[in-house]
Amino acid sequence: MIWLKRSAIAILAALTVLFALDRIFPPPLERGETVSQLVSDRRGRPLRAIPTPDNYWRFQAHLEDIDPVFIEALLEVEDQRFWRHGGVDWTGMMRAAWTSALAGRVVSGGSTITMQTARLLEPRPRTIPSKLIEMFRAHQIEARLSKKEILELYLTLAPYGGNIEGIRAASWRYFGRSPDRLSDDQIALLIALPQSPEVRRPDLRPQGADAGRRAIVAKLERLGYLNAGRAEEARTSQMPTGAYAFPSDAWHATARAARGVRGDVRASLDARLQAEMEALALARAKEAGREAQIAILVVDIPTRAVRASVGSASRDIAGGWLDLTAQARSPGSALKPFIYAMAFDDGEASASTRISDLPKRFASYQPDNFDRTFRGDVRVSEALQHSLNVPAVLALDRVGPERFAATLALAGAPPRIYGGADTEFGLALALGGAGLTARELAILYAALGDGGRAKPLVWTAEEEAESRSRKGYRMMEAESAGEILSILRRAPTPEGRIPGRLTAEAPQVAFKTGTSYGFRDAWAAGVSGDHAIIVWVGRADGAPRPGETGRTAALPILFEVADRAAYHLGGDGDARARLMPERRHEADGALQSFDHSTAEAPHILFPPKDAELWSGEINGAPARPFVLAGRGEGKLRWFIDGQPSKIDDAGLPVWRPERAGFYAVSAVDEEGRTSEVRVRVIGIGGS
């Protein structure tokens, strides 16, 4: 009885030690979690394979995606009792030891798939102590994983030569395809390779690969798995060279889609549209020259899914390795629609509100129009369509630059101020005085196309359904967003382009361009049906490209993108709603003029309204310049067709016409109020 007690105590102590060892030294299963990623598009078409951080090609294996014939053949050769043993096949171990003793050499190691998996997780020299550790680890693995999970882990880690690990990586490298359907010769090669991966690599040692494949074919034939005809065909099939490259399309976009995801990724991208956008960007960049780069974003408005994202025209052009959709740049005038939208929300203006486009100083800031001319009183719609600067600054002054910046930030597009001691947002924000990325502009323009609701961009197919139900942040009212879209759709189209509303099949594009200070960044942003589109053209280093504006460099590309997006992706009811016939709303009450002050505008005394002025010679003497006269609050400033008048030696505003024809003469008082008369000049050049 004593010996029974001692035996029981000994067994209990041994079990306790084993339990403690199992908990203190668990198997390192985490190595199987470090895998490469295969990023496919929304329909499952492969786009790009991304290696592990240590530069191995190792894709996570899933049995349902692997040819079941391969699985059966593998277990016939490597581990016939895999589904029945508990990690160590003692019958197989004894048989391997007996056959090796008879042969006088090691014929078979007797290792199960689970033991081989343990060795792959912890590579060790092939010694008896190592074998004992593998057996212990095999039991640990069997206690933690199902048989299916163990087989998938083995097929994820199995070595296939060089930095190729796992069945999926091997199939891509050697056959150029996934392992869902394999031929007999491919099955035999993929079983033979892990046994001696460096000796049997088909790309480096085709003779060794052929010998290994023949050995497996012979074994499968001997086991009755292959008949004589299939075995002969498998033996004589051409050996692959291993020259297939892993897919590497959509470099920047797939990197963003794969961020924070383990294993394979189904991106929201559309492979066909993505390929066309990359080709378009490269072609237009080559035409632009001077190390020009191009970035393009196409976003599906209902889901905010990114359908195409081109981070650069080419990685062979300077700065091409950067994802330029994620680099903050000055947006130029691309933010003006959102300033006016907020003014519409506040009841300060509507599309038909009159607003002043005349020189005006705001403290130390005095904006100027791009063409350095002024147009007097204009409608808000005209100011936005022609991207007039002074009206936009007037609107931002009324809305408040800090409030406008806060609204952008809450929408997901925080403006950035770089350099200088002043970090407060000023009125220069209306003209691109802060940095935004193309992705952030896409958020804003997608909100414009979705009734004013801003949501984050979506990069994976899994997130799309969630995005539809997400309410988002309302940065403007739906009526204001619709009015802005209507204004932008009527903006002058690029040269040679018929407006979409006049063409039956062409997409109607509501767009805005932007050009940053010094011609560093050219932008075009817009809404076309179901899609928000952003195009940036410039140099990655921020160097200027004199004369290249958003209208000339980026807008033609945006219209090409709109055409191709409509062709590949189409639209739905939401798109048709965004393309409804336009309605212009006339202002009433206070909205008739953006200036709400009660003081009277200046009164022009000379020249009188609709006057005809003689500016020819009188008795052979040249005509004297006209002296402009009027009365108003403070000193008046005078403009002829938007250009400041000259001042004579006496300090009086004078005007000497240089041609015959009609002119607009404007007077502006110190509060920015304006009056205008139209006159006709005759007597010059025979008039």
UniProtKB/TrEMBL annotation:
One of its GO terms (molecular function) is carboxypeptidase activity. GO terms for biological process: peptidoglycan biosynthetic process; proteolysis. Residues 295-536 form the Penicillin-binding protein transpeptidase domain. It is an enzyme of class 2 (transferase). SUPFAM superfamilies: beta-lactamase/transpeptidase-like (SSF56601), Lysozyme-like (SSF53955). InterPro entries: Beta-lactam/transpept-like (IPR012338), Glyco_trans_51 (IPR001264), Glycosyltr_51/Transpeptidase (IPR050396), Lysozyme-like_dom_sf (IPR023346), PBP_1c (IPR011815), PBP_C (IPR009647), PBP_transglycosylase (IPR036950), PCN-bd_Tpept (IPR001460). Residues 597-679 form the Penicillin-binding C-terminal domain. GO terms for cellular component: outer membrane-bounded periplasmic space. Pfam families: BiPBP_C, Transgly, Transpeptidase. Residues 54-219 form the Glycosyl transferase family domain. It catalyses: [GlcNAc-(1->4)-Mur2Ac(oyl-L-Ala-gamma-D-Glu-L-Lys-D-Ala-D-Ala)](n)-di-trans,octa-cis-undecaprenyl diphosphate + beta-D-GlcNAc-(1->4)-Mur2Ac(oyl-L-Ala-gamma-D-Glu-L-Lys-D-Ala-D-Ala)-di-trans,octa-cis-undecaprenyl diphosphate = [GlcNAc-(1->4)-Mur2Ac(oyl-L-Ala-gamma-D-Glu-L-Lys-D-Ala-D-Ala)](n+1)-di-trans,octa-cis-undecaprenyl diphosphate + di-trans,octa-cis-undecaprenyl diphosphate + H(+). Pathway: Cell wall biogenesis; peptidoglycan biosynthesis. Its EC number is 2.4.99.28. Keywords: Carboxypeptidase, Glycosyltransferase, Hydrolase, Multifunctional enzyme, Protease, Transferase. NCBIfam families: PBP_1c. In the N-terminal section; belongs to the glycosyltransferase 51 family. In the C-terminal section; belongs to the transpeptidase family. This is peptidoglycan glycosyltransferase. It comes from Henriciella barbarensis. The gene is pbpC.
